[in-house]
Amino acid sequence: MDAGSFTTLRLLSGAIVLWIMVRIQHTTQNHQPRFNLTKNWFSASVLFIYAAAFSFAYITLDTATGALILFGSVQITMIAYAIYKGSRPNMAEWAGLGIAFIGFTYLIYPDLSSPSAMGFLLMSIAGIAWGFYSIQGKHSKNPLFDTAQNFIKTLPFIIILALITLPQAQFSLQGILLALLSGGIASGMGYAVWYLALTGLANSQAAVVQLAVPVIAAIGGVLFVSEEMTLRLIISTVMVLSGILIVILTRYFIQQK
């Protein structure tokens, strides 16, 4: 499927699934959901920018290179914002961030290739947008409702995107099914859980925790599709998890003082 159509179906299916979940939640609580469609469009805007830039970037990037650019941009964005707001990571947190990122880079290093200029730019934009989307999630009081509202507010953007990319539209049954699963389950439900997790994480913690994603994916490959458990995977897993643990424990002890 072409990138524009994939992005459109991904966000649309996420909006539909989340709207149904919010309706079910509010029905059990005996009141109707009231979405505020006049305020706080920033989260919806950066969500759309992330999803669109991500899809178009991967036209010219391989998986490992795209992941490195994406996660690197996310780390820089969230840590820079934390510093701007006066929450500067201490030496232990910097060490944990460094260890986790080196472990992540070591995991994907064999598959890295030189990125195209456009791919690099688009994936950097996607990472910055996701960083700001995550930062906004720290203020969420109702993660499921807020995530649904963000997805629903992307509808005007995806209509414009669909119209612009219609001449290049390419569809297949497999592509449609993957887009729907990506939006309705992996993105819609997954982002709601992420917003829930963010309420208990500092920006530096949230930034480094995301580096566990490629490691979890690699371990999933070993468990479910018979991929090989390599020494590289073991070393990178230990490094990433150790770095995350250092950052989380450091912030915990700071808060206890």
Question: In a nutshell, what does this entry contain?
Answer:
With 257 residues, this protein is mainly α. 77% of the residues lie in helices and 0% in strands. The protein has helices at 3-28, 42-57, 63-84, 91-108, 117-137, 143-153, 155-165, 173-198, 203-209, 212-224, 231-256.
Low-confidence stretches: none
Helix content: over 70%
Mean pLDDT: 88
Class by SSE composition: mainly alpha
* Count of distinct strands: 0
Task: Name the helix and strand elements from N-terminus to C-terminus, one letter apiece.
Answer: HHHHHHHHHHH
Largest β sheet strand count, sense and barrel closure: none
Q: Which value, in Å, is the CA radius of gyration?
A: 19 Å
Q: Total domains, how many?
A: 1
How many helix segments?
11
Mass-distribution shape: globular
Portion of residues in beta strands equals: under 5%
How many angstroms does the end-to-end distance come to?
Answer: 53 Å
Task: Explain how this protein is built.
- This protein is mainly α and about 260 residues long.
- The chain has one domain (about 5-35, about 40-95, about 115-205).
- The chain contains 11 helices and no strands.
- The chain has helices at about 5-30, 40-55, 65-85, 90-110, 115-135, 145-155, 155-165, 175-200, 205-210, 210-225, 230-255.
- Helix 1 crosses helix 8 (about 175-200) and helix 3 packs antiparallel against helix 4.
- The longest helix has 26 residues, at about 5-30.
- It is globular.
- The relative contact order is 0.20.
